[in-house]
Amino acid sequence: xxxxxxxxxxxxxxxxxxxxxxxxxxxxxQASSYVPGAVIGGGIDGIVRVGDNLSAAEQIIIGKDNHxxxxxxxxxxxxxxxxxxxxxxxxxxxxxxxxxxxxxxxxRFDIVQEKCVFHPYIQFAPRSFELSILNKDPVLHNxxxxxxxxxxxxxxxxxxxxxxxxxxxxxxxxxxxxIIEIDCDAHNWMSAWIVTSDHPYxxxxxxxxxxxxxxxxxxxxxxxxxxxxxxxMSTRAKVASKARAAATISFGA
Amino acid sequence: MISHRSAAxxxxxxxxxxxxxxxxxxxxxxxxxxxxSLAKGKEIYARECAAxxxxxxxxxxxxxxxxxxxxxxxxxxxxxxxxxxxxxxxxDDDLLRTITQGIAHSAMPSFRELPEADRxxxxxxxxxxADIKTAPRPIAIPAAPEVxxxxxxxxxxxxxxxxCQTCHGDTGTGDGASSLTxxxxxxxxxxxxxxxxxxxxxxxxxxxxxxxxATGLDGTPMPSYASQAKPDEIWxxxxxxxxxxKR
Lengths: 253, 247
Hints:
The complex is a heterodimer of chains A (253) and B (247). With 253 residues, chain A is mostly beta strands. Chain A is built from three helices and 20 strands. The longest helix of chain A has 8 residues, at 4-11. Chain A is globular, with a radius of gyration of 18 Å. Chain A starts with a helix and ends with a strand. Chain B folds into two domains: 9-130, Cytochrome Bc1 Complex, Chain D, domain 2 (Orthogonal Bundle); 149-244, Cytochrome Bc1 Complex, Chain D, domain 2 (Orthogonal Bundle), CATH 1.10.760. Helix content of chain B is 39%, strand content 0%. Chain B is globular, with a radius of gyration of 19 Å. Chains A and B meet through strand 11, strand 12 and strand 13 of A and loops of B.
């Protein structure tokens, strides 16, 4: 039986279409050469929602290092919803936008392991960057990063961090995929994701499921939302100069 | 890869059915030495390797389903036995060593009986499948220290400090708490090996064990300890682990 994570892998390579669950490699395919410049554009304010017909997320027993990691169960890729069923931690991206606002690329990103949880759980980055990795726990974590390529995943690096407060820095450059999965083999419930982009028109939804993308050139765009536990879904948004467009992306009915 | 000496009849039949023609290099009027070597390598690959690793090098040969662990998918470019940092492709010598020695605890046999030129030609084929265009640099492995009781005691201390027991267990028998939940890149079930058997994937060679600890085994949960352990500490663990073997 496929887990939710397996379903995400299995759905990769199919374009988002007509309200069905689909995703990533193709749906998040991006323009390879972004041209920055002056933009007199508008913005997009949106929300990502989830319908009622959602199966239960995978739960894993916290079965080791309980003095640090806590007790009970953990959900590697939680589907966290607001009262209005807004989805937290979805990455929303304009698809195939080749030119737009200036982009000061961040060169360094951070990930912290604390109480056997990765922080942040999800973030976006350019296709090449340096990742700084901190282990705050006095237990062995091994930060194991994979490049997702269609149904497959390939190790990008796998580094042991057996001591508390150790820091490693690793240069990352994706060559084939656009999504990085991070886990810890020693604690199989730990999960984090980095979605890479060739342009700056990306956002992560807040606890209400809301997002905002600014300084978008006037035009009509495909807007793709992706969540590690759900896959991807898309909608279209029409942006006019000096105006805010509204967008709703819905997973399920 | 599968040995023409040790392969089951079914795999030999599958290999024969695949035939050398499936991978024959396109004819070139005046191929250079490298091209000739690659063409020869493709012929050897079709005969010796494709039954498991597949005509396309994707690890999906007709015999792949009967071996565990599964044959390497060269296309993904991830290799366990390297002397290069985690995430880097192997050197040509790394690939040659694996083809020559095979891999213990797996169906990958030794191809020592093939002439070295043929094995090097196979290295070229694997490099092409994996799209390795650079010349990866191996890590520096300092000279091995003299084995002594003090070194072994130090190795035991470092083994614990590096928390190797998390997977390999307190006594190295592979019964660590995390061993029950380990998975490989393909999300297949994988176990931490029992170090007390004295049988290691890349053989009992001390330098090879040093490389496994320093660079990890990409594609598996075994991480690189290069940034967290000093060379003398890694050497101490190498000799401690070798001392665990029930010879």
